[in-house]
Amino acid sequence: MAIESDVLVIGGGLAGLSSAISAAREGADVRLVTYKQSTLRQASGLIDVLGYTPDGDGPLTDPYEGIDALPEDHPYRIVGVDTVRDAMSMFDEVVDTYQGGHTDTNALLPTYGGTVKPTARYPDGASAGLASDDRDLLLVGFEAMPDFDAPHVAAHLRAAGVPFDVRGVTIQFPGELMDDAKVTRYAKLLENNGPVTVRGRERGARDALVERINPELEDEPRVGLPAVLGDDDAAGVRAALEAELGVDVFEVPATPPSMPGVRLEDRLFEALDEAGGNFESGNPVVSFDGQDRVETVYVDKQDARIPFSADQYVLATGGLVGKGVESDRERVYEPIFDCYVPHPEDRYDWFDEAVFGEHPFAGFGVDPDPELRPLDAGGSPEFQNLRAAGSVLGGYDFAAEKSGSGVSIATGYHAGRIAAQEAQ
Amino acid sequence: MASTPHVLVIGGGSTGIGIARDLAMRDLDVTLVEQGNLTHGTTGRMHGLLHSGGRYAVSDQASAKECIQENRVLRDIASHCVEMTGGMFVKRPEDTEEYFEKKLEGCRECGIPAEVISGEEARKREPHLAKDIDKAIAVPDGAIDPFRLVVANAASAEQHGARIETHSPVTDLLIEDGEVVGVEVKHKSGPGIRVHGTEGGTEEIRADYVVNASGAWAGQIGEMADVDIEVRPSKGVMTIMNIRQVDTVINRCRPKGDADIVVPHETTAILGTTDEEVEDPEDYPEEQWEVDLMIDTLKELVPMLEEARTIRSFWGVRPLYEPPDVGSEDPTDITRDFFLLDHEERDDLPGMTSIVGGKFTTYRLMAEKISDHVCEQFDIERECRTADEPLPGSEDFSVLRDYMEEFGLRSPIGRRSVERLGSRADEVLKTNEPNPVICECEGVTRAEVQDAIKQSGSDLNAVRIRTRASMGNCQGGMCVHRLASELHDTSVDGDTFDEAIAREAWDELLQERWKGQRHALWGEQLSQAMLNYALHATTQNRDNDPADGEPVDFAAFDAGGDHVGDASGTDVAADGGETDGY
Ligand SMILES: Cc1cc2nc3c(=O)[nH]c(=O)nc-3n(C[C@H](O)[C@H](O)[C@H](O)COP(=O)(O)OP(=O)(O)OC[C@H]3O[C@@H](n4cnc5c(N)ncnc54)[C@H](O)[C@@H]3O)c2cc1C
Ligand SMILES: Cc1cc2nc3c(=O)[nH]c(=O)nc-3n(C[C@H](O)[C@H](O)[C@H](O)COP(=O)(O)OP(=O)(O)OC[C@H]3O[C@@H](n4cnc5c(N)ncnc54)[C@H](O)[C@@H]3O)c2cc1C
């Protein structure tokens, strides 16, 4: 007997979670199956909607205005700008640890690479770092954490012309952490105010850190640190640091493995649970039955194939990074349903010569109809009841446009909603 | 015997090279021929476990005792090839108490230091162990680098006058009057081949004695003289993980089984293995199920393995041997002991002995025994010195342990740095500052990068070539910006590299790294390329750096909502930054 639901979502990244939550909010009985941790583990944790046009113009102040100028086959054009707005509203309702919903205008945030980038939503923990905020800024890095070199980032931000003074200092994280300690180790130590030894004395890590930052502060009203300020209770860690330092504290959006990304993923799974959805992770969907409609999909569980049946399906397995789109020497393909993925025949046409050139591979993915059903090579829906969302969709280069999370949320929301309506 | 006997050794694996060193140190004339490169055979395709003997403590105590003895010897003579990680036999709830006790007793009977630790203690040592591990036995297992060990033995053998010919397969045995008197070899020619005297063509090498140490190929050499050597090649898979999930060797505490061991190696962990009889040691199927089995079974010990990425898998073939009358059905029943087959006694064919079976860990002891046997043929009584005399390189590396403690370097990274730096290691790594890893794939630390910058100035490409930074798996995805940060603010000969210089060098290196990847853009590497592109363009906005382009109108962007009560910039520091919204 197959496990049944109205809507089955395949993939538990930003797109899959958004579509499962939107379907559940429509009243459908939803189940989500996902294989591994999603791309959020690598992403900065920022929610970009649109930062640059496909021609590279930007940074755009208003992402929604930019959407009108996108090519017709761009996922945003397919779902329409109003849907994008509705989707972002859903995100704001569901994720109360993010900001930016008060305005249509993009924010600019400093990156660990020393640039600023346009984004539409940012974690609470990053909000004191806005680059359009003209308060002076102190960046503090740790000796043993080469990903975030505060003096270098500060110099780079100055070169970028930010409207405030910015300094960077490097300090040693208190205690005898290994040179290559994991970010989670820092996060846990700060969260528990865990014991570290400083000059022979046991101290709380957070208290000791405050003591090291204090003498570095001149009169900057805000301090930026690498994104390791807590794991489950980031707000608590930040509040404690702010109380003791007497200034605003923020995290500079992260390098992988990304604590802000993981926190967001955790929050979305919670929200799905609250909305009444079911989910399970750890095993991939590997095959399916069906001709015109998908009847059943099979999850591979230690050699057993577990069938899942639903009235409607959402494919949200990610792109090249998430492995929803795969390739070999000969071709690019979607591995579960073998949905058509347009791509140049010669694999030397898949990339541009310049590292930041126009890379066709960045746009690899399925080509959907207005309901987000993947189309076959002849332009007809592959299946009546299969919709796709997120980076498994083709036709846009999220890295260049800075549109990754926005497309995942908007198309996830749209696909989930239609699926729920169709199922009822 | 008037002149010095000349011994010809077939096979450049650990066994053959060990014999060549031993005999050369006993002043015999030695020639070793190997069909491929050194470690071409099983030695280059093994798990890299320096056995404590614990694995054999129940089933094969003679082997276990040899292992612990040789384990100690190798730590002494080959310190630069060994990382003493320590090991554990971990017991899951479903593994029997009875076997656990037997294992412990066995270790004690064999003189293997063994300590029972609680599940909690085991997880303290290895945080990624499964929560339901009951307890464990800690033993002195280690990791060993077979390439470096074989090369060091070869260097030592040559120093003692041996001739070593690689890329020279034996094509026939020379037999005169029913006695083996030498071999015919074919020297291949081509790039990268070390030729000693002869380039290309066939050579007859006459010898007073031939030692067949060709491992899984021993039967093929036997056929050249019409003798049967019943080697039963058995393949095993090893799966390399992209990171080092454990820092100690983790064994499952139960009777023999597939996929029951994880060995940390340099920056990776290697899972193993299977045991499947094959026909031909050069040509056998490498199957997906074997890899899956590694992960699916070993995740019971280390759950995070399931999530982890494998870089690649490789296979090796065990040269198992059993005397003709045993006839085991299952290859796992075949003994891991080694056998010395004197073909004079066995087949009435004087002049040659074969050595088959055994383990890498005990290679030196095997070599000692066979060298004793060879010396007996010539009535030579000379002491074996291989257990006492350190291998070349080992002395130089004795400072390593100090480095690691002093600089807090993770051990394999420390070793890699020292290896790259040779005698300059001391000068370069002696820093009082924290010395984190900049390039994880290649294990390059800050001190090394700083040293390279001192030599090559602001050219990050030159830094790359000197250190190998950005040349690993991720092709600079994770480290190019770190290298730029290392460059920033560094002074060389009075010039300080400012942000603009660092930025230019950064872009140059990104472009250079991209150039090389374009020829491998499918499958995993295309996925990696997309990840790198996203990291650099999306997270860092490197493709639209405002420092390179038009000025940005900052005031036109979001300056914060009501959650950020302090956005106006007034009244901030005084109130302790007590913002609302938490
Ligand atoms: C390095 C990096 C940095 C980024 N930075 C930003 C940023 O700063 N701002 C921004 O807005 N966006 C950013 N993005 C983009 C954004 O993270 C992605 O666009 C978005 O997360 C994609 O979500 P998704 O749900 O479509 O796919 P994914 O997150 O890839 O999720 C797909 C899920 O499907 C699962 N799956 C795959 N195959 C199967 C199967 N057969 N069966 C079951 N499950 C399966 C996977 O395990 C995974 O959990 C970044 C992306 C990357 C790679
Ligand atoms: C999967 C696996 C994992 C293992 N793990 C471990 C471990 O963790 N620890 C451990 O101690 N042991 C381990 N072993 C055992 C160990 O690897 C072997 O016992 C050891 O390496 C054998 O060395 P060898 O020199 O006898 O054979 P080989 O290394 O195979 O050497 C024989 C050489 O002879 C050469 N040769 C063959 N024919 C000719 C010819 N005609 N002319 C010239 N040269 C020829 C071959 O090219 C080869 O290089 C493992 C084995 C396997 C298969």
From TrEMBL, chain A:
Gene3D superfamilies hit by this protein: FAD/NAD(P)-binding domain (3.50.50.60)
UniProt keyword DNA repair present: no
SUPFAM superfamilies cross-referenced by the UniProt entry: FAD/NAD(P)-binding domain
Keyword annotations from UniProtKB, A to Z: Flavoprotein, FMN, Oxidoreductase
Domain FAD-dependent oxidoreductase 2 FAD-binding: start-end pairs: 6-407
Record-linked InterPro entries: FAD-dep_OxRdtase_2_FAD-bd (IPR003953), FAD-oxidoreductase_2 (IPR050315), FAD/NAD-bd_sf (IPR036188), G3P_DH_GlpB_su (IPR009158)
The UniProt record lists the keyword Magnesium: no
EC number: 1.1.5.3
Signal peptide positions on this chain: none
EC class name: oxidoreductase
GO cellular component: glycerol-3-phosphate dehydrogenase (FAD) complex
GO molecular function: glycerol-3-phosphate dehydrogenase (quinone) activity
PANTHER family: ANAEROBIC GLYCEROL-3-PHOSPHATE DEHYDROGENASE SUBUNIT B, FUMARATE REDUCTASE
Protein name: Glycerol-3-phosphate dehydrogenase subunit GlpB
Organism of this sequence: Halapricum hydrolyticum
The organism's taxonomic lineage, starting at the top: Archaea, Methanobacteriati, Methanobacteriota, Stenosarchaea group, Halobacteria
Gene name for this UniProt entry: glpB
UniProtKB/TrEMBL annotation, chain B:
Gene3D superfamilies: BFD-like [2Fe-2S]-binding domain (1.10.10.1100), D-Amino Acid Oxidase, subunit A, domain 2 (3.30.9.10), FAD/NAD(P)-binding domain (3.50.50.60)
Domain BFD-like [2Fe-2S]-binding: 437-484
Key words, A-Z: Cell membrane, FAD, Flavoprotein, Membrane, Oxidoreductase
GO biological process annotation, one example: polyol catabolic process
Catalytic class of the enzyme: oxidoreductase
Reported cofactor(s): FMN; FAD
Topology versus the membrane: Peripheral membrane protein
Start and end residues of each stretch annotated as Disordered: 541-582
Compartments where located: Cell membrane
PROSITE patterns from the UniProt entry: FAD_G3PDH_2 (PS00978)
Assigned EC number: 1.1.5.3
Xref: InterPro entries: BFD-like_2Fe2S-bd_dom (IPR007419), BFD-like_2Fe2S-bd_dom_sf (IPR041854), FAD-dep_OxRdtase (IPR006076), FAD/NAD-bd_sf (IPR036188), G3P_DH_FAD-dep (IPR000447), G3P_DH_GlpA_su (IPR017752)
Domain (FAD dependent oxidoreductase): residue spans on this chain: 7-360
Pathway: Polyol metabolism; glycerol degradation via glycerol kinase pathway; glycerone phosphate from sn-glycerol 3-phosphate (anaerobic route): step 1/1
UniProt keyword Membrane present: yes
Cellular component, GO annotation: glycerol-3-phosphate dehydrogenase (FAD) complex; plasma membrane
Enzymatic reactions: a quinone + sn-glycerol 3-phosphate = dihydroxyacetone phosphate + a quinol
GO molecular function, one term: flavin adenine dinucleotide binding
Subunit structure as annotated in this protein's UniProt entry: Composed of a catalytic GlpA/B dimer and of membrane bound GlpC.
Classification via PANTHER family: GLYCEROL-3-PHOSPHATE DEHYDROGENASE, GLYCEROL-3-PHOSPHATE DEHYDROGENASE, MITOCHONDRIAL
Family to which the UniProt record says this protein belongs: Belongs to the FAD-dependent glycerol-3-phosphate dehydrogenase family.
NCBIfam families, per database record: glycerol3P_GlpA, PRK11101.1
Protein name per its UniProtKB record: glycerol-3-phosphate dehydrogenase
Organism encoding this protein: Halapricum hydrolyticum
Organism lineage string: Archaea, Methanobacteriati, Methanobacteriota, Stenosarchaea group, Halobacteria
